[in-house]
Amino acid sequence: MKHISGTVVSVDKILYMIAGFILAIMVVVTLCDVILRNLGHPITGSIEIIQYGGLLVFSLSVPYATFLGAQVIVDIITEKLNNRINKSLSCITRLTGFILFLFIAYNGFKYGLDVRKTGECTSYFRIPLYPFAFVVSFAFIFQSLTIFIDFLKKIKGDKDE
Fold first, then answer.
1. Would 130 disulfide with which of 28, 89, 116, 126, CB 3.0-4.6 Å?
2. Is 89 exposed, middle or buried (0-12, 13-18, 19+ CB in 10 A)?
3. Average pLDDT for consecutive 10-residue bins of the chain (161 residues)?
4. Radius of gyration, CA atoms only, the chain
């Protein structure tokens, strides 16, 4: 279990670093576009780069953020419940999240196959769209695995939450 958990977390970290690199590129493109736009020479297609970069940054950063527990937790009601009910609710929400992200990953993969068949591309650079769908699908597979590992930790009662 620790080996699988370590592998998932390692891949999550790699995806997170890739997301950070893409975000840095987006910042540089935006900065250059703003400066050049004021000089009358905007970067053509910069909006497309930012749109698809944002998609990649979001999807690639979610698994590691989930591992870190970086999401917002609203526990106004659950903090008043006893530990047993709280643990049960926590397990149910993690199991639901696991199933939901597997469903999203599966449909993202199916969508990628459909887009690949149709040959749909981005509007300016004519980049095929299917790799983006596959990357999102891959990232959400690791999101679901991260949630599942957290679910198993909750069941075992690990204190490193």
1. 116
2. middle
3. 89 97 97 95 92 96 93 77 84 94 97 96 92 97 96 77 44
4. 19
| CB-based contacts of 123, cutoff 8 Å, min separation 6 | 48
Residue type, 13: K
The contacts of residue 63 (CB under 8 Å, 6+ apart) are 11, 12, 15, 16, 139, 142, 143, 145, 146
Question: Which pLDDT belongs to residue 78?
Answer: 76
Domain boundaries defined on the chain: 2-156
- Confidence (pLDDT) at 161: 44
Q: Long-range contacts made by residues 108-113, C-beta under 8 angstroms, separation at least 24? A: 108/133, 108/134, 108/136, 108/137, 108/140, 109/133, 109/134, 109/137, 112/137
Alpha carbons within 13 A on the beta-carbon side of 21: 7
What sign results for the dihedral spanned by CA atoms 97, 17, 72, 8?
positive
Longest dimension (CA), the chain: 63
The DSSP symbol for 43 reads P
Predicted model pTM: 0.86
